[in-house]
TrEMBL record:
GO (cellular component) term, any one: vacuolar membrane
Subcellular compartments: Endomembrane system
Keywords: Antiport, Calcium, Calcium transport, Ion transport, Membrane, Phosphoprotein, Transmembrane, Transmembrane helix, Transport
Protein's name according to its UniProt entry: VNX1 protein
Main localization category: membrane
UniProt organism field: Urocynchramus pylzowi
Sequence segments annotated as region (Disordered): 1-36
Amino acid sequence: MATDAELGRRRRGCVQDTPDAPKVPDSRADSDGPRRGSLCDRHCAAINNVQGDLGELGCHLHRPRVPPATSTPSCCQQHSEEVCESCVVKTTLTAENAVEANKLSNNYKFGFKKWKSHVTARPWEDRSEIVKELYSDLNVIRGSAGSTLTCGNVLYLLLFGWWLSLLYILVAAVMFITVMGAPYGRLCWDLARYFLWPFGRVIQKVEVPKCHQACEAGVGESSALLGGPTPLRWRPRCWEGAGYRHHASTAVWLCLGYPVLALAHGLVCVTAWLLIVLIPVAKLSARATSRVLLLPPERVLIRRLRVTEVPLEGEVILCCYRAANPYYYKYAVDGINVFAVNLLPLVLVTLVLGYVDSPNHLTGSAVKFTLALLSIMPLSYYIGMAIASISAQSNFAVGAVVNATFGSITELTFYITALIKGSHEGNRCYAEVVKSALTGTLVGCVLFVPGLCMVIGGIRHQEQRFNSRSAGVSSALLFLSVGGVFAPTLFSKVYGKLVCGECHNVTQNPLGHYLCHNCHFDLMDNNGTLYYSHVQPLVYTVSILLPAAYLIGLFFTLKTHTHIYDIHISDCHMPGHHHSAVVHWSRWRALVILLLSTLCMSACADLATEHISPILTNSTISQYFIGVTVLAMVPELPEIVNGIQFALQNNLSLSIEIGNCIAVQVCMLQIPILVLFTIFYPTNFTLVFSDLHVYASMFSVVLMNYIFMDGKCDYFQGTVLVMVYFILLAVYFFAPSPSGC
């Protein structure tokens, strides 16, 4: 029986990621009571049929049941006349364990990093068959594998199969020449045919019977399980004088044959792993190197499968049906996505190449700058994973401190290193690039991130709904932050002195029209009285008020008005199942990875700022465009991927919150921190932006609020946001470079 308090909570309103409840017309607008009740009942039936689908998060919408004894024919007759209150439901997200529940809860907290991936190992029985196949070893025989003639298998033949087979034939010839290695030569000959097309064939490890048992076996010996007579070359052989000949053959193999094949398989393994979809080929090569090639030849049996419904005799070492699997983008190693694993060596290459080859003998500045930017992507992923892991395993206070401290560390590291380098060189371009990156992050997170999520999510879902109340809080903070950030700029436009670098008289008349270039508002007139007496105090005041407003927003959403995010996280399981949390990263391990990733991030940011100067000087592209696109959006790629995954699972609220949260943090945390940094370390950074930055930011925020007013969207509205973003990019592309660059 629901308590009065619970019923009160249900009557407050339904705020959830699933579609918002339709509003029932006011009873005062319709005097027909029974007709009003039937309409409300239809709304109730529509809402009660809605069920949130959050995919791999294992989240479901649970509707509170009303006992039959207390149920009434009409929901509106039971509660208030103004609101159909039995339509009010509460979203309950279920997780595998308490740690995952805490992570899901943190995703709905304002100011916390939204993270899609699991921080704990998922129970094997809860995974789909597709995911189970990704993690299975290549030693499982399936009853019905279908045709082996697929595009992926043909791709394997073209990339690896033909030259691997040829290499095995050459090694077999060498083994036969040595005479002592003849048994391994026969093995390589058969492996040459296997690796040319290994699909639908099996490699077994068989037990060697005694010599008299093997010699008594007839030539026509057959196996019903394997479907045919056993070939003579695969019968166990009697080793006369077993000791010396066996050891000599093994020594020849380990010296001449195995190293060459191990090197070839290592090359295949690395290449296939980097291609991701060919990870089964990487597993095939790794297993062949570590198991098959180290076995005595008489214990290796290679057969083509004909009847696979009955288990084969002997241990199955290799059995592969497909060389490619497009679902390997979901593959993870110790909780780390395979893309982040593959990009991690890039960080090492970037650091070694950047600091060892400082004179640019091996590569130029453009290559090093590109490598440094690409290295930021996996480091951002590791930082996000570490923050999510620590927050999920800690209390609210620790999670809040970690998110506030390291949530913007990626962007701040680059901005601060760029300002320091610009101060050392006396180059104002670095400060302008930082301003462009700040504006690009704001515009991209307001337009591009939610727009792209709407488009991709709209492909699967015709219409998506989101929590308009929570989005309204972020929108209000965005309006406040944009107004505060650009207040010094507007002040300088009103009271600054317009100075132009060059003016020409068009009409040759002293009283005629003049054409001026490189005009800007000078704040340093009269020894900088305007700037130091008016603009700078305003900048400091805004830098104090914006973080204070951010803290008020946190207190509002996390303390006093938590019902806005009316989400209940429960640790529920199916009957008979109970799973303890097996975390991928412990708190200490996550902390070490977080610190190391931050250190590497600082080094990569230093390399990027060091090698960006030739690009800014020699490039024909506007510095505005470089800062708004490359420097602004590359560090946010992991967040964009998270937003897309949430949108595909019809959880658009989190997709929108990802962009809004980053945009709010740019204005209310990152910019005040940069202002504070300039107090202790003077740089060329001033909180006065160009007109283009002001107009683009304000227009983006207004458009975003207009799109988000009704709490629902589709792919068309997402397309509008994306198109507007690309139009602004075109404006930045054709805009002239900032003055002084």
